[in-house]
Specification:
The protein is of the alpha/beta class. It has one domain: Rossmann fold. The chain contains 4 helices and 7 strands. The chain has a 7-stranded mixed β-sheet, covered by helices on one side. A hairpin with a 2-residue loop joins β3 and β4. α1 packs across α2. It is globular. Bound molecules: adenosine-5'-diphosphate and magnesium ion. The site of magnesium ion has 5 residues, from α2.
Protein backbone atom coordinates (compact mmCIF):
# COMPACT_ATOMS: atom_id res chain seq x y z
CA UNK A 1 0.00 0.00 0.00
CA UNK A 2 1.41 3.36 -1.02
CA UNK A 3 -0.16 6.63 0.02
CA UNK A 4 0.87 10.15 -0.80
CA UNK A 5 0.08 13.24 1.20
CA UNK A 6 0.85 16.88 0.64
CA UNK A 7 1.78 18.99 3.63
CA UNK A 8 1.84 22.77 3.41
CA UNK A 9 3.00 23.52 6.94
CA UNK A 10 4.73 22.06 9.99
CA UNK A 11 1.31 21.74 11.59
CA UNK A 12 0.01 19.64 8.71
CA UNK A 13 3.08 17.41 8.96
CA UNK A 14 2.37 16.97 12.70
CA UNK A 15 -1.19 15.99 11.83
CA UNK A 16 -0.02 13.42 9.31
CA UNK A 17 2.30 11.97 11.97
CA UNK A 18 -0.60 11.89 14.42
CA UNK A 19 -2.71 9.91 11.93
CA UNK A 20 0.14 7.47 11.22
CA UNK A 21 0.51 6.86 14.97
CA UNK A 22 -3.02 5.45 15.09
CA UNK A 23 -1.92 2.65 12.76
CA UNK A 24 1.06 1.57 14.89
CA UNK A 25 1.23 -1.28 17.35
CA UNK A 26 3.66 -1.95 20.20
CA UNK A 27 6.22 -3.52 17.86
CA UNK A 28 6.11 -1.25 14.82
CA UNK A 29 9.16 -0.14 12.90
CA UNK A 30 8.86 3.16 11.03
CA UNK A 31 11.70 4.05 8.65
CA UNK A 32 11.98 7.69 7.56
CA UNK A 33 14.12 9.01 4.76
CA UNK A 34 14.56 12.39 3.15
CA UNK A 35 17.21 15.06 3.05
CA UNK A 36 18.31 17.18 6.02
CA UNK A 37 15.46 19.53 6.91
CA UNK A 38 12.87 17.48 5.04
CA UNK A 39 10.68 17.17 8.11
CA UNK A 40 11.41 13.70 9.49
CA UNK A 41 11.73 14.95 13.05
CA UNK A 42 8.59 17.09 12.71
CA UNK A 43 6.61 14.07 11.52
CA UNK A 44 7.95 12.04 14.45
CA UNK A 45 6.82 14.83 16.78
CA UNK A 46 3.29 14.27 15.50
CA UNK A 47 3.59 10.52 16.13
CA UNK A 48 4.88 11.14 19.66
CA UNK A 49 2.12 13.67 20.36
CA UNK A 50 -0.44 10.92 19.74
CA UNK A 51 1.26 8.83 22.43
CA UNK A 52 1.35 11.86 24.78
CA UNK A 53 5.15 11.95 24.99
CA UNK A 54 6.05 15.03 26.99
CA UNK A 55 9.85 14.83 26.97
CA UNK A 56 10.36 14.85 23.21
CA UNK A 57 13.95 15.57 22.18
CA UNK A 58 14.09 17.57 18.95
CA UNK A 59 16.87 15.54 17.46
CA UNK A 60 18.83 12.67 18.88
CA UNK A 61 21.64 13.40 16.42
CA UNK A 62 24.31 13.35 19.11
CA UNK A 63 23.04 10.46 21.16
CA UNK A 64 21.68 8.60 18.10
CA UNK A 65 19.04 6.74 20.14
CA UNK A 66 16.49 8.39 22.42
CA UNK A 67 13.89 6.59 24.43
CA UNK A 68 10.52 8.05 25.32
CA UNK A 69 7.73 6.70 27.44
CA UNK A 70 4.35 7.27 25.92
CA UNK A 71 0.89 5.92 26.49
CA UNK A 72 -2.07 4.66 24.55
CA UNK A 73 -5.32 3.09 25.71
CA UNK A 74 -3.60 -0.20 26.54
CA UNK A 75 -1.13 1.54 28.86
CA UNK A 76 2.50 2.54 28.72
CA UNK A 77 4.40 2.33 25.48
CA UNK A 78 8.14 2.60 24.85
CA UNK A 79 9.25 4.59 21.81
CA UNK A 80 12.77 4.59 20.42
CA UNK A 81 13.73 7.56 18.26
CA UNK A 82 16.87 6.91 16.24
CA UNK A 83 18.75 9.32 14.01
CA UNK A 84 21.36 7.56 11.90
CA UNK A 85 22.62 10.73 10.19
CA UNK A 86 26.10 10.42 11.70
CA UNK A 87 26.47 6.70 11.16
CA UNK A 88 29.24 5.92 8.70
CA UNK A 89 29.45 2.15 8.65
CA UNK A 90 27.61 -1.00 9.56
CA UNK A 91 30.23 -1.49 12.27
CA UNK A 92 29.19 1.80 13.86
CA UNK A 93 25.57 0.82 13.52
CA UNK A 94 26.22 -2.38 15.44
CA UNK A 95 28.26 -0.52 18.08
CA UNK A 96 25.36 1.74 18.97
CA UNK A 97 23.20 -1.32 19.53
CA UNK A 98 21.03 -0.88 16.46
CA UNK A 99 20.21 -4.58 16.06
CA UNK A 100 19.22 -4.95 19.71
CA UNK A 101 17.07 -1.86 19.47
CA UNK A 102 15.11 -2.83 16.38
CA UNK A 103 14.93 -6.41 17.64
CA UNK A 104 13.10 -5.25 20.77
CA UNK A 105 9.59 -6.52 20.18
CA UNK A 106 7.91 -4.40 22.81
CA UNK A 107 8.55 -0.90 21.55
CA UNK A 108 7.87 1.40 18.64
CA UNK A 109 10.99 2.18 16.61
CA UNK A 110 11.11 5.47 14.67
CA UNK A 111 14.24 5.68 12.52
CA UNK A 112 15.50 8.82 10.77
CA UNK A 113 18.02 8.33 7.94
CA UNK A 114 16.86 4.74 7.71
CA UNK A 115 18.60 4.45 4.32
CA UNK A 116 21.82 4.07 6.31
CA UNK A 117 20.49 0.79 7.64
CA UNK A 118 18.92 -0.57 4.46
CA UNK A 119 20.75 -3.86 4.83
CA UNK A 120 18.98 -4.43 8.15
CA UNK A 121 15.64 -2.83 7.46
CA UNK A 122 14.50 -4.80 4.47
CA UNK A 123 10.84 -4.33 5.11
CA UNK A 124 9.87 -1.89 7.84
CA UNK A 125 6.19 -1.76 8.81
CA UNK A 126 6.06 1.77 7.43
CA UNK A 127 8.57 3.30 5.02
CA UNK A 128 8.09 7.05 4.87
CA UNK A 129 9.80 9.29 2.34
CA UNK A 130 9.57 13.05 2.60
CA UNK A 131 10.27 15.25 -0.41
CA UNK A 132 10.81 19.01 -0.35
CA UNK A 133 9.58 21.34 -3.08
CA UNK A 134 11.90 23.48 -5.21
CA UNK A 135 9.52 26.42 -5.28
CA UNK A 136 7.51 26.37 -2.05
CA UNK A 137 9.72 26.06 1.04
CA UNK A 138 6.80 24.99 3.23
CA UNK A 139 5.52 22.25 0.98
CA UNK A 140 6.33 18.58 1.44
CA UNK A 141 5.23 15.41 -0.29
CA UNK A 142 5.01 12.58 2.22
CA UNK A 143 4.97 9.09 0.80
CA UNK A 144 3.94 6.27 3.08
CA UNK A 145 4.47 2.67 2.13
CA UNK A 146 2.89 0.15 4.45
CA UNK A 147 4.11 -3.40 4.60
CA UNK A 148 1.52 -5.80 3.27
N1 LIG B 1 5.44 21.29 5.63
C1 LIG B 1 6.48 21.17 6.46
N2 LIG B 1 6.65 20.04 7.17
C2 LIG B 1 7.71 19.87 7.98
N3 LIG B 1 8.68 20.79 8.18
C3 LIG B 1 8.57 21.95 7.49
C4 LIG B 1 7.48 22.18 6.62
N4 LIG B 1 7.63 23.42 6.06
C5 LIG B 1 8.75 23.92 6.58
N5 LIG B 1 9.34 23.06 7.46
C6 LIG B 1 10.60 23.30 8.17
O1 LIG B 1 11.52 22.30 7.75
C7 LIG B 1 12.33 21.90 8.85
C8 LIG B 1 12.18 20.41 9.10
O2 LIG B 1 13.08 20.05 10.10
P1 LIG B 1 13.26 18.58 10.66
O3 LIG B 1 11.94 17.96 10.92
O4 LIG B 1 14.21 18.68 11.79
O5 LIG B 1 13.95 17.85 9.40
P2 LIG B 1 14.73 16.48 9.35
O6 LIG B 1 14.48 15.75 10.63
O7 LIG B 1 14.15 15.76 8.15
O8 LIG B 1 16.18 16.82 9.14
C9 LIG B 1 11.90 22.72 10.05
O9 LIG B 1 12.75 23.83 10.17
C10 LIG B 1 10.48 23.14 9.69
O10 LIG B 1 10.13 24.36 10.27
MG1 LIG C 1 15.79 15.02 12.09
Amino acid sequence: MLEKYTSNSVKETHNIGFQIAKLLNHNSIVALSGELGAGKTELIKGICAFFKVDDFVTSPTFTIINQYIGEDNSGEIIIYHLDLYRIKSTKELEEIGFSECIGDSNSIKLIEWSEKADYKLKEPDFAIKIFTDDIDENKRIIEIKKKI
